[in-house]
Design a protein that fits this description.
about 200 residues; alpha+beta; NADH Oxidase; 5-stranded antiparallel beta sheet; 5 strands; globular
Amino acid sequence: MSSALPPPPPFGAALPIETSPEVLRFLALRRSTSAATLTEPAPDPGQVADLLRLAARVPDHGKLTPWRFIVLQGADKAVFAARLEAISSGRGDIVQTGKLAKLKTPPLAIAVISTPKVAAIPEWEQVLSAGAVCSTLVQAALAMGFGANWITDWYSYDAQATLALGLNDSERVAGFVLIGTPREPPLERERPSPPELVTHWKP
């Protein structure tokens, strides 16, 4: 499938800043989708490639690319979920086993893996960049017309679970971005009041 995106600009190309009311409206109304409502169809391979291309355009101080993606879909995702279930069941942890429904239900999960590099750039900034990847991936999926949700849950932090996912000791899960077609539109939730969160610094 051909991409609906413009071709990647060549290195050094001028990219003028332009107003985009459509983007502002999208951000004003965006809403993550409950994982329990996500079903087929998921993005096709071409759309997944577009999503990853968009997610990789986040701020990245030092151009270190301190993150990578693991795509889980179909039978492979089911196998991974089964391994997580075996881990939690082996511990007799019913609560952890029950939480796997969030991962099992949506047809597509993209794990964003934080991979900090040894560099002059502080590790904290590299981790923040991985978080920006998760956020951009959610927004891109929503803009594409799919539902999306960014989760972590116990299997993002559990050593056995991350080993099953293929992480090494220096990597961490920044998030699982769950994507599919929502069975119902999400409802607006309570939002923070920005004026209550803002101070203006004065000398």
